[in-house]
Amino acid sequence: MRRSAVLTAPACALFVAATLFGASGAMAVPVTHDPLALTGTGSSPRSIAVGPNGEFYTANFGANDITAFDVTGSNLFLQQLGPLKAPTAIARDSSGALWTANSADHSISKYIPGHTTPSTIGLTITSRPTAITIDASHVSDPSDVVYTADSADNVVAKSTEAAGIITTNARWALLAPNTAPKGIVTDSLGNVYTANSLNSTVSKITPAGVVTDRFTEFSPGDGPDAITIDSHGMLYVANYSAGTVVKIDSTQPALANVVASYTLPTNAEPMGIAVDAHDNVYVSESGPNTVALIPAG
Predict the structure, then answer these.
(1) pLDDT, tens digit (0-9, with 9 covering 90-100), for 241-275
(2) Is residue 172 within 8 Å of 155, Cβ to Cβ?
(3) Which residue from 114, 141, 170, 222 lies 20 to 30 Å from 24 (Cα-Cα)?
(4) CA 10: distance to chain centroid?
């Protein structure tokens, strides 16, 4: 099996090795992709969200903006969020609005494409919101429920929008100390999952706020930085330090649910991950400032 040792140019082909668990002996399967899009030097794309038609959006920590691309990776628009935001995460709600978690000024922002000014909602002054997601069990609801993971306080905040008014419970769920959650996603039943960078775990939180701190464990130092879920309930976790994407079956018991692991190219430093309507997986790689694609299946 071949794989690239070093990313030398945006046009070079990359190889992702998939190690399948549960079989008699591990089997490596090459998955080939090129960088799908370039976000710009110094942009540092920390998170990615995907729309219903394959369009996708990146939250660019270094540039304080959002970039939108069509399904081919061509740029659609760039939206500034304002100085000192440092957006670390992005999510798309049921109406097509884009939400970001802004770590520098302790806030979340909502941007409706076509409007010139994003709105900003402040959180607690000690918070460092590093991940954001929309409650998948509310997709047909006219109101949106937004969850934010706070890596400074080790908590999950819950914000509910109804009739244009947003109310927030800044300490809806308490995680274990020293977890530093940097990724968050919900499933179709309203369960919430966080990727915890400091202790290399995934936590599961029920709709009632009951926490299983160690739903999945990785090797110490792997640094899970983002998490997403596909239509079959499969979770995908981007491990920043390990340079891997790990696939987890959310229907399986705690600590017995890892399905596969995909090794990204050297220095990929994945910080964002998302799944589209066809279960293709998009990974924002902050090292080379690129977006990678792992095809469905």
Answers:
(1) 999 999 999 999 999 999 999 988 889 999 889 89
(2) yes
(3) 222
(4) 22
